[in-house]
């Protein structure tokens, strides 16, 4: 009986301490704005997210979120950095209200999280070719060409698989586990492969260091990217949809796309390709 009484007293004490701890967590700023915890990737992905000389986060995502704060003055974003998967786990556990890690939408995640209806940007995929190549601009041009090795799974492979399923003329695919983007670009430069298929931002990051004799032959797709929220954050998602759509229509987000990517990726792919979406034109991007 004595042991039970001691256990009960200890349980009550722990409960009271937990209440004290919860009450100490700030939910508003000193000036009364609602604090929204935003998970950001600890792994940079320029130009979506990078760091400056003072190790401060910069990039398209940060400019977008800063503009959202201006248009939703009752909200203050508090940034926490972590790995992508741990960020998603944190949202599910209620640790963060949302994450801004250039997420694609997929059925599995849609069951677990809340997606705004309006994407805040696009991740573009393209064919990287030798700088002397003039004839490769789309996947149609690759049915008789040699594509650099690709992974057996993932978003890029899904695009290639879908193309082969929907077309009689197939793209020959060489599959290896975890292909190196750097080695694939070197294969294209040397002529061992006619093209490599990758995200344009990935190509930019590598090319800024290697300065290979390669270029973007053509844009293949633009995949919408979204913020990911706790399912309970329906009001916040609605507010984000409203201001994001406003920013698209008034030219704010197209201007940010031009600033960081060198092109307005809210336009269609034909327009983007016609604008000459080449690395040389984007190398001075912030």
TrEMBL record:
Domain of life of the source: Bacteria
Q: Where in the cell is it found?
A: Cell membrane
Q: Where is the signal peptide?
A: 1-23
Keywords attached to this Swiss-Prot or TrEMBL record, sorted alphabetically, are: Lipoprotein, Palmitate, Signal
Q: Write down the InterPro entries for this protein, in alphabetical order.
A: Solute-binding_3/MltF_N (IPR001638)
Lipoprotein as a keyword of this entry, yes or no, is yes
Q: Which cellular components does GO assign to this protein?
A: plasma membrane
Q: Which residues form the Solute-binding protein family 3/N-terminal domain?
A: 35-264
Q: In its UniProt entry, what is this protein called?
A: Amino acid ABC transporter substrate-binding protein
What species was this sequence derived from?
Bacillus altitudinis
Q: What is the lineage of its organism?
A: Bacteria, Bacillati, Bacillota, Bacilli, Bacillales
């Amino acid at each position: 009986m004595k042991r039970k009484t001691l256990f009960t007293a200890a349980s009550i004490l722990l409960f009271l301490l937990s209440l004290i701890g919860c009450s100490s967590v700030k939910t508003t700023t000193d000036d009364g704005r609602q604090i929204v915890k935003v998970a950001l990737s600890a792994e940079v992905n320029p130009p979506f997210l990078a760091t400056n000389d003072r190790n401060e986060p910069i990039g398209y995502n940060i400019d977008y979120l800063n503009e959202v704060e201006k248009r939703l003055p009752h909200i203050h974003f508090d940034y926490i950095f972590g790995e992508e998967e741990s960020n998603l786990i944190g949202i599910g556990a209620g640790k963060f209200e949302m994450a801004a890690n250039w997420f694609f939408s997929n059925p599995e995640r849609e069951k677990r999280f809340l997606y705004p209806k309006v994407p805040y940007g696009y991740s573009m995929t393209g064919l990287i070719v030798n700088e002397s190549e003039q004839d490769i601009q789309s996947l149609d041009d690759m049915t008789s060409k040699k594509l650099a090795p690709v992974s057996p799974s993932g978003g890029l492979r899904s695009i290639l698989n879908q193309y082969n399923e929907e077309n009689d003329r197939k793209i020959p695919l060489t599959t290896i586990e975890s292909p190196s983007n750097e080695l694939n670009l070197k294969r294209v430069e040397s002529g061992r492969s006619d093209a490599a298929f990758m995200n344009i931002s990935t190509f930019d990051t590598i090319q800024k260091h290697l300065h290979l004799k390669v270029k973007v032959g053509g844009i293949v797709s633009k995949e919408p990217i979204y913020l990911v929220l706790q399912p309970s954050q329906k009001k916040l998602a609605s507010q984000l949809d409203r201001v994001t759509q406003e920013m698209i229509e008034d030219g704010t987000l197209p201007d940010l796309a031009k600033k960081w990517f060198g092109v307005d990726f809210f336009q269609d792919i034909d327009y983007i390709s016609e604008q000459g979406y080449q690395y040389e034109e984007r190398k001075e991007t912030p």
